[in-house]
Each structure stands twice: as structure tokens, then as C-alpha cells.
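Possible race condition, two jobs.
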Amino acid sequence: MILLILTFSKLGLYFSKCLLKKWGRTAWKGEKEMKKLLAVTVALFLSTGAVLGLFSSAYSSIVPTIIQSFASKEIRPGDTWKIYLQASDPSGKMKYIYAEIEQPGGTAYPLSMTRIKPENRKELSGYIYLNTVTAEKSLEFTTLKLVVYVGDGTGNFSEPAIFPLELSLRATQSSPPAGVFKENNLGPVMIELKPPGGDGDSSPITD
């Protein structure tokens, strides 16, 4: 962006010098010539600003996007819950998969951050997973929401994908639609589920 600004500034100065040389060879004819020079100069600055505005708008619109997602709405306590994602970022700067759990009953959970491998930072397809192996039977019929979004580490985030879940001893985890997602392990959601009213634990960042 700085290079573009310098380039257009140099072009503006170059054209201004050319005009001054051209009109400097002959005597000024008064106010009419001055108005011409001012009009050309203003036009140059306006066109430069418009072009830079377009580039700035296009650059700022490049953010990570979750294209498709899927997760079973119910699992048994102790199962590993797979959350499938397909995401992209044209700039290739996706850095973290963020996950938050919302659970009725006042249970508080910290934010989980799963680092995205360099080879997946432009496009990714696979699953993150939540391990419920430590979940006790007291979690049966517990409901929660997992909120997932992707960030590039510079303040740009995708729209969130929200996954409701119920834990039930009679549940069977559903499989994703065939051919949509890769069976690629993207990393864990580092949160340990607790009964309603408890405090969840997590490791803030995973490699």
C-alpha cells in the first residue's frame, strides 16, 4: 500500500513538472492558464485517491471465511466430538481456529486457540475435535453450544460457525456428508467439559 502511494505521488509530481515546462516556454496568458493548471492538478489528486481507495477496500475485504461446516448434534459422554470445517483465506494468512463453549448453568470456559499449520493457511478442510473421555455420567442430557471462528492473527476473523450439542448415553454421532470434507486432523479443542456450574479448563494454544 505504501508503495502504491509513493508511485502515484511520483506520477503526480511528474505530470505537474511536464505541465510547468510546457507552459513555461511561453508567456503566461493570465488567469485562464492558472485555472487550467489547477484543474489538472486537482484531477490528478482525485484520481489517485480513488484508485488508492479501491485498493484499500479490496485489501480490507480479504478475511478468512468458513465455507462449510458440520458436526453431529448429539454424542455419548466419553465420545470424541468431531467438528468439520472447510475454510479459506485468499491472502494465505489463517493462523488460529478459535473455539468457545456456551453452556447453560453458569459454567465458565476459557477460549481455545488451535494453531493452523502453514500448509493449511490458505485453504483448509478437516476436523477439530473435543475430547469428552473425562466426562462423567452426570453430563448426560447436558446441552451446550460450540462457537468456532478462524482468525489471521492480525485482527481479521471469519463469521462464527455455531454447533449445538447434547450429550446422551443413547446418542450416536452422525457422520459428515460424503465427499465434502477431508478426514484431516486439524487439532484439538483444548477445553475439558464440566457439569453445569463448574469451571472448564483449557490450554490456551495448541500447536
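Job #2 (started ~2 s after job #1):
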Amino acid sequence: LKQHYCFEGNHTVKYFGGKSYSRNGLQQDCQFLEREIVGQEGNVPETVAMLRSVIITFRHGDRSTLYGDFSGQITDCTPFRDSDRCAFSDYTDLVNSNSFDTFIVSDANLAKFQLVPHPASCTKGNLTAEGALQLLKLGNFLREQYTNVGFFTEKVNGGLSGFEWNLKVYSSLYARTFQSAIAFISSFIFPMRNFFSKAYVNASDNEQFCFSELCKCRALPLMEKVYSQTRTSFFENAFGNKTMLNLKRVLNVLQIKNLKDPLHFLDVVRGRYLCRRLPLPCYNGTCVKYADVKEMNTLVSARDYMMFNDFSQGPSLFRRLMVAQSTGILYSIQNHIEALLRASSKSKYVHIFSGHDITLRPLLFVLGLDHTEPPHYASRLVVEIYQRNWYKSHNLNLYFRLLYNGEDRTNELSFCTNRLFNNILCPVDYLMYFIKSQLLQVANVTTLDAICDANLGIL
């Protein structure tokens, strides 16, 4: 697909109704398609190490809000720019083509979802056309990054014997994550289909991608419920009555019942107004201002950090929740590395997880990476696994990098600080040791059962 980038460095993005907001704020909030994707993925010289595997976990693209009655509220989610409307039409044609249809095989539990979102309508919690294009654009970017460093190649040690490719794609059981996975595959994997006979999209019945008994946690639903019930009172206690009154003021403007938390406010404001490029709402002479959005976004991040680091009664519920929710992806990474150690030196791995903000959030917290909550649409966490001594297949010598939204964060990992090879790569042994021996210690426990016993989880 030909991509169109029409944003020429203007300092503001013009909105309907004459409103304008700073470019950086809205680009970050909504990930508008005119925003250039940048990143350091794959930029390790081949002379240093050979890329053997990439594990990509991303949040779905732009969606409509989860709250409120949609009748008469938002009538149009058509892409804003002509070029993006054309790109979505081309994308729809591609996904509906015979060649793509024969390449994609989806789990039966995902078959109920359409492959692409509606080009114009807005429906509660569902992906927009621009949301699909965000993942298509990300897939294009990452494919180019990895092609440029020789990851997608048929050559092995100068010969033409070819690699054995291990491709796995997972999506949670939501239309927005499935359609995001399809969009990403269409630009990241499908153009390289000579390497892959099929792309299977596997279903995960949970947002944390836990596939084994080792990460099953029967207390999670109760812990999540208690967290959602207590976070608003924590917000009021942490930031005071004045801030809480301001929250109630802006929530009242939205005129949606049962909204209590700043996360509710941010979800509605982005899904109905900001990311639709519409003016912020007013009601009875009171208006939501962009300063309110910035303030609530900052305070949500601050609240979650405070809750994670609250040891007033031992490790907090939120800290234990984050550890329990992180085990699915982290145990998959552990299994991934162990499989790579057993595999032929001619094998390469690509694993993709299409998830949610609550998929990324636990990983960022337990790994100790500063970030803004919630992770924006199409946020990505990438683990790259490299092999040194490429021509000595008997000595795999594996290293890794971890990148969040294109930024190399490897040196910020406590178990990698000052341990990097060539100031770039961290030995996978340190990551494996963290997952096996240190992860549960983040919650001051030695077994997952100590968190996940239904009677202990909320204590």
C-alpha cells in the first residue's frame, strides 16, 4: 500500500470549529496518521550480532469510547484526510483479495469478527478506520526497519539454503484487537509471504495472553474489580478535594451516567472529541479545556505509580495485580528463548501479540520502565533477540534488546544496567533469571499462588 504523509511540520493541528491544540499533545494522545513513526528497532549492526527473533506486543489502534449512548452522539468516524480515506479503501481491497484470504487463517473464536472495521461508523469500543491504518502504518515501518538490517533474508552464512521461520500471531477476543492484528499482518508479514506459507491468528481468552497453568490466576477478576473500585478514592486522597471537584466538573460536562474516574474522562474525551478532531464539549456554560485533559492524564499516571509503590500495608494490591498480569507475556518470552536455544541456527522467530493498554501496563511496571498511563493507541513493546558468533552455530551466545515505542530502554532494566555488550545488548541469561527468580519478588512473594489464591488476592 502506498502511504501518504501530508503533515509538513506545522505547529498546530486545526480542528473543526476553529479550535487548535498543540501538535505534540494531540499527536501523543491520538497518534494521528500524519505523525511520523520513528524508532530504533533493528538498528544493531550485523557486525555486532545477528537478529534471530522479534517479539512484538502492541495495543490496538484508535477506537471509539467504551462509555455512553452512541445514538445521536458521534455519527461519523471516517478518516479525516482524503489520503487516509483512499488508503483505507486500498487496504480493504487488499484484505478482501483472494491472495490475502488464502494467506490468513484465523482461530474459530475470532471468525465472528469482520477483518476490517467499518469505514465510517462509530460503535462502542470498536476500532475505527484510522485505528486500522495506525497498525498498518506501524507494520510498514517495522518491516522496513528489519528488512534494512537483513532480518528478512533467505541467505545463511553467505549461502542460499534458507531460514526456517517460526511465526506466531495472537489476538485477544475483541474485534478491535483482531482487526489490529490483521492490519499489522497486512503490512508487516504479508509483503514477506514468500517466507511464510500461512499466517495463523490464534485466540487468547484473556488480555494477558496466558496459555498455561503456570500463569493462571483465579483471583485476577476479583483483584481487577477491587482495583477499579478503589482507584478513584485513592485519587481523591492523593490529590485532594480541589482536584476531585475539578474531575466532577468535567465529568458533568460529558453528561454520561456512572462516570467517576479520570480514566473514564480521558476515554470519552479521546473517543468522542479529540481523536475525532472535534471541539471539546461544553454544558450549561462549563467547558472542558485541553488543560483539563493534560492535567487528568498527568494525574492518572501519577496515581498508578503511587499505587504501585504503596507499601503502607505491604506490597499493594495494584503491585500484586501487575505482577500477576505480567506473567502471561513474560512466561511466553521465557518459552520463546528456550525454544530458540534448542532450535537450529537457521531458524528465525516472529511472535506478535495484539492486545490492550492493560496488556502493556503490567509489563512496563514490573520491568521498572517509566511511562505515561495509559499507553497510547498502537503503543508497542518489542523484544529483539540477537546471536553473536553467527558463524559458530554450536555457540548461540544470545543477547536481547527491549524497546518501547521505538526507544531502546534496555539499559533502564535493573538487571541489565552496566551489563550491556557493546553498550547495546544485554545477555538473555539476565532476562531469564529475572523472569524465573526475580519477577515474583517484585510483589514480595515466591509463588504465583501466594498472589492468586482467591482468598489472598485482595488482602
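The first strand starts at residue 12 and ends at 14.
Logs attached separately.
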